[in-house]
UniProtKB/TrEMBL annotation:
Residues 45-70 are annotated as: Disordered. This is peptidylprolyl isomerase. It comes from the Eukaryota. InterPro entries: Cyclophilin-like_dom_sf, Cyclophilin-type_PPIase_dom, E_coli_cyclophilin_A-like. Pfam families: Pro_isomerase. Keywords: Isomerase, Rotamase, Signal. One of its GO terms (molecular function) is peptidyl-prolyl cis-trans isomerase activity. It comes from Triparma laevis f. longispina. Its EC number is 5.2.1.8.
Amino acid sequence: MPPLFLLLIAVLLPLPSLPLSQPINRRALLTSSTLLLPTSSYAKTKTSTISSPSSSNSKSPNSTTPIPPPLLPPSLSLLSTIPPSPTSPLYASLKTSLLSLLLPTSPPRTSLTLLRTFDNSREIFQSSSSKLLPEDSTLSYITKSEKSEKYLSLIRLNLQSIISSTTLKDNSKTLTLINDTLLLLSSLQSLSIPFNPKIPPQYKTLPVLKKRSTLTLTLSQNKTIQITLDPYIAPLACGNIFDLSERTFYNDLPLKVNDDKIVGGSFLEGFIDPYTAKLRTIPYEVYCNGRLSYDNPIQVPPDFNYNTKNLVGVYKNNLGLVSSEFFISKGNLSDKELEELNGEVQPVGWVTGGDVDDVKGGRILRVDVDGEVERWGKGFSEFS
């Protein structure tokens, strides 16, 4: 029996219900970001450390406790922005099945069926996520294959744990595992998508991010934040912030924090691009209905609400172009602040590890990166 058919059966087949001890309001969870989840395996990816003199004695994120991811909205958004592919229905069905576990009427055998259908479809996931894409270098292809196998193994471990947590009616652990699995699914699926955005020729000297990448910010006051950059919504803005992180631009810069947001990356007028010897500015990129536009940069599409906790964006400068200063929403913005931000901040990704409410100020000690960026004249390679 084809694996895809099995998965559809798992999603659609009605089974007897097992009430949870404390029913979960799924709608509230998907629209609220006031809760954070416990430690997750998602944050255990390897990073390449770039240290500044001011942070040479600080502890590497690799040696600390893994960073807990925020609740659902980031993981769902990261899945929704991935372009369609032949395996998209498979991922969509798995996501639907995972979310159905949040319902108090969830059938008792759903989690077990989910694991079985995942095992039956594992070869499809493996072959699609590790296939050689036109833009892959030999090194990036090997790295991608290793990541693919790692994500698949972690997903299976999570699905096994979900069987136990749903049986024990441990709602908190179930939420943690579902969120973690959704993040892993988005990472796995993004490996299989060839992404070659149509960048207008006037922006050819700007760095471009073509694959999902992470930034781990080590802050003063012993805090750490992990950001997942999403190039599907803004490849140039994501490429810029990734490039600046690799160049240690953000190291030792201050953070401005209040109840509404975290602002970082302020440094005089910005970054002087070595290719042009001028201030680097990025055009505003509008993502709407799965398409990028550089022609009508006025309104932010409804897909991205700045009042959604953990949304990361980059501010425009006084020229109306995207700069180096970034913004992290705490989800407490007033209507007036939302109106002022609309069209003034470029969405670039999500905080997927760490608690933004714990950040009270201080400085960025360093930024560790995990990913690749394409630079003009250098091809798809890491900065050196």
